[in-house]
Automatic annotation (TrEMBL):
PPR repeats lie at residues 223-257, 258-292, 293-327. This is Pentatricopeptide repeat-containing protein. It comes from the Eukaryota. Belongs to the PPR family. P subfamily. PANTHER family: OS03G0856100 PROTEIN (PTHR47447), OS12G0638900 PROTEIN (PTHR47447:SF17). Residues 199-361 form the PROP1-like PPR domain. PROSITE patterns: PPR. The keyword Cytoplasm does not apply. Keywords: Repeat.
Length: 373
DNA sequence: GTAGGGTTAG
């Protein structure tokens, strides 16, 4: 592939060769399949001339994508300077859908080198294609180009990237790439954080943690969010001890835990039934001047109530309301169930009535979603 | 749109 890429670069540098590929290929076009291109152009408001469109279609129809065909495509794009972005996007789209991932990647790279950045969605097509075909080098290339072109990737792109590694245990290349990307994004940790998050979200917990270890070992960028993501990963995996160990290591790294760190910790400890530890960390967060919120109290009310400490559960519920934090249906549901469990049916009924009479002013999703920033 | 719930077993 590298050789043909080099070949293309050479042929591109010899601009005289462009004239060898005029748009005459349109003569060979048949009308089938033309219809899919037109709506695309009208939808983005750049209808190019129909001859270019015929050329687009004809040059790919049933042809093997040889270097000659690639050169022909590039010449077509070059000859359409006012719409080369759109035309390039159409070509790469079509090549991806036809399974010619490698050719699509080459076109993307050549246009990228010419500062022609195609529509982001074709990068995703390429990420998926490269992922399915296990073309890791291409995957890295597309990911990097996407980042350089747009500075920001969608969550979908990160997920496509991560999914490429589901079937492989070889992480040497991946870790090398992580270091590579880190140099590109230094000093921000954002891209690395999102990579870790995508690996976790696609069920690759071990690889997510491997990347984290690598980042720490190599002293790459790392911040509060990195730790919060890792705490969550360990908590969800039921690895409470490892989670607490990482929490302690935040101090050594000079990173101060915030309300999300503590909530992640408390909620994960709740899941494994460690109610006393929930309260201990709740106390610690108070000493450190971090204000608890609805999620903190929800985890504590449930944790204490479920382990039979119903008095503490009720006290926390009152304390929360005194602080002006509106309860949610989940707090009531939790209280009512746990009260019934210890035989306090009357009090449970009282809370049921209180809940029903205040349904309209209970906390909803907007009351605990992270603040917009 | 970089991180922490959504009938989390009820």
């Amino acid at each position: 592939m590298l050789r043909s890429l080099a070949g293309l670069a050479v042929s591109l540098s010899q601009s005289r060769r462009y004239t060898v590929f005029p748009n005459q290929v349109c003569i060979k076009s048949n009308s089938v399949g033309f219809s899919w291109i037109w709506p695309f152009f009208t939808s983005i408001g750049h209808p190019p001339n129909s001859f270019q469109l015929f050329a687009t279609h004809a040059s790919l129809d049933g042809k093997e994508v040889t270097d000659d065909v690639l050169n022909e495509i590039l010449a077509n794009i070059e000859n359409a300077p006012r719409s080369s972005l759109e035309l390039g996007t159409v070509y790469v789209d079509k090549l991806c859908r036809a399974g010619s991932i490698s050719a699509a990647g080459q076109i993307l790279q050549i246009l990228h080198d010419k500062k022609i950045f195609l529509r982001p969605y074709v990068y995703n097509l390429l990420l998926v294609g490269a992922s399915e075909r296990n073309e890791i080098d291409l995957l890295f290339q597309v990911f990097k180009n996407l980042f350089i072109s747009y500075k920001q990737l969608s969550e979908t792109s990160y997920l496509h990237f991560a999914k490429a590694f589901v079937k492989t245990d070889d992480c040497v290349q991946l870790l090398r790439f992580v270091k590579d990307v880190s140099q590109l994004t230094f000093p921000s940790a954002s891209v690395l954080n999102r990579i870790i998050f995508a690996f976790a979200k696609s069920g690759q917990t071990d690889k997510a943690l491997l990347i984290f270890d690598h980042i720490r070992r190599e002293k790459l960028s790392l911040d509060l969010i990195t730790y919060n993501v890792v705490l969550d990963i360990l908590g969800r995996a039921g690895r409470a001890d490892d989670m607490l160990h990482e929490f302690e290591s935040m101090k050594e790294a000079g990173i101060i835990p915030d309300v999300i760190s503590y909530n992640t910790l408390i909620n994960s400890l709740r899941k494994v039934g460690k109610s006393e530890m929930c309260l201990a960390y709740f106390s610690q967060m108070g000493k450190n001047g971090i204000q608890p919120d609805l999620l903190t109290y929800s985890a504590l009310i449930e944790s204490t109530g479920r382990t039979g400490n119903i008095e503490e559960s009720l006290r926390l519920f009152r304390e929360m309301k005194l602080k002006g934090i509106r309860p949610s249906v989940y707090n009531y549901r939790s209280l009512i169930n746990n009260l019934k469990k210890v035989g306090k049916d009357e009090l449970a009924t009282t809370f049921l009535e209180e809940m029903n009479s205040s349904l309209t002013c209970l906390a909803g999703p907007k009351d605990f979603k992270r603040k917009s920033r």
